[in-house]
Amino acid sequence: RQFLALPIDKKTTRIARMTTELGEQDEKIKERKNLKQIKSGTVLPKQTSIGHELMKAMRKQGERSGRLSLMEKRAEFSRLDKANKRKEKEVDRLENTLEREELQLEKLLRENEKKSVEAKIFFERKTKSKQKKEAEIKKLTAEIGAPFISRSERIKLQEVMIDYNKYKDLLFELSPPEWQEAQKAKALKVQSDGDPEDKQVKGTEESDEPELFFTDPQQILDLMTDLTEKSLFLIQNTTTVEETAKELRKSLETTKQSRTVALAAFEQQTSSFVPPLAQKDAMWDALGEKVGEVYRHCVDGQITNLNTLEKLAHIENCMALLLQGLDNLPEEKLTMMKMIMDSEQRSRYVSVSRRGSRNLLKDHAKWQWDYSITPRVLCIAGFFSPLQYIVSKRDNKNVCC
Questions:
Q1: Where does the record place a coiled coil (predicted)?
Q2: In a domain, 247, yes or no
Q3: Cys staple from 352: which of 17, 29, 81, 361, with CB 3.0 to 4.6 Å?
């Protein structure tokens, strides 16, 4: 940092600094040797020759380092000179631009001053001419004596007339509808009757003195207070209606959300119900076919267009008749049938025991119990239901109904 802070003439390279230090040390050594030689009076030729060679080498190195440092300094000086020249050129260019801008500003200011002076003179002339014209117009109007209205006054009067017409229309609208209808009828009568000259005269009279429903300004104030109260009431009603509408919208949104949730749940339920419903439909179809077969075997063998419920009703009627017939049977026939059943059971038991298997005996006995002639006997005896009997006989293909 100290080296960087130094000026350019005092900055040197490391080699130059080392050479200067070595030169100073050599000079000190030579001075000491010279003092010793003077004191001793003897000088060694070898030592002096070596010292001279070292001094020459050190001088050469110092010269080289000095040349290098000079070259570096010259390069730095040339670079700095170029940079200074560039900056001077930029400064000159900026000064020239500033001078030009100052000249342009001065020109603009002079032109503006001239224009302002000219405008002031022109305005003063115009004002003077206008004042003269106004004075002449006033003199002429005073000399003529006729009522003369200027253009600005006409415009003001027209604006006042427009405002008064608005107020008139407002008062006409505030008046009761019956009075409005009467005024309209009068206007129609005036238009239908009379000459155009009379109409013009009447119109001028009406325009001078218009008819009004309100005779006292207090009536208008009272009506305005009533209207303000009504408007406030309507505003309150609108606020309440808006609040209720917001609540209804919220409730509708909630109901829509609940409906969407319910519909999703219902769709899930229906999707879960579809396979069992199909199974139930298949089961009901199979039961309907079985009922039709039972109906054909027991009631009527012809094809009919009856429903399953109607077929079941016919079958129940037939079964009721059969049960009544069974109740009317005598006890002797029942005992005889029981004996026949016992004998058949014994014969089966004997045939199965010969085979040597009781398990087969049970299964075979059950099977023979359902699909042999014994159900007929049991049905008559009361140990077997008539429907099972009919089904067993249908399977056995021996209908006895």
A1: 70-143
A2: no
A3: 361
